[in-house]
Amino acid sequence: TMAGGLFAINTDYFAHLGWYDPGYEVWGAENLELSFKTWMCGGQLETIPCSHVGHIFRARSPYSWKVKTANPLKHNLLRLAEVVLGDEFKHFYFSRVNYRESEM
C-alpha cells in the first residue's frame, strides 16, 4: 500500500475504481482502500524513485466537518474490511481487532 498523502492517480482510473467509498468518515484508510481496489482490478502501484511529493500535516485542520462516530479511522478500517475484503476475508481483520459484526 501507499501512504494517503503521497499518491497520485489518473482521474479516469480513479472513476473506474469507483472513487472513494462514500461510507467513509472524514479521513483515514482511503490509501488502503485505493491500494486494494487497484490491486483487485489488475492495476499496480508504482514507486517512482526520483519523484518529489510535498505533504503538509497541520496541527489543526482549517476545515470543519461533522462526523457520525467518535473514531473515524476505526470506522473507516472496519468499513474497508466489510466492503473491500468481503465475506471471505473480513473475519480475519475483525478477529484481529476484537470486533463483532453486531457492533457495526
Order of helical and strand elements: HHH
Q: Name the structural class.
A: mainly alpha
| Low confidence ranges | none
The N- to C-terminal Cα distance equals 25 Å
What is the overall number of helices? 3
Note the main sheet: none
* Count of individual beta strands: 0
- How would you state the average pLDDT, rounded? 84
Q: What's the alpha carbon Rg, rounded to whole Å?
A: 15 Å
Helix content bin: 40-55%
- The shape is globular
> β content, as a range?
under 5%
Summary of the model, kept short:
By secondary structure, the protein is an all-alpha fold. Helix content is 41%, strand content 0%.
Describe the structure.
With 104 residues, the chain is mostly helical. It contains three helices and no strands. It starts with 10 loop residues before the first helix and ends in an 8-residue tail after the last helix. 10% of the residues are buried.
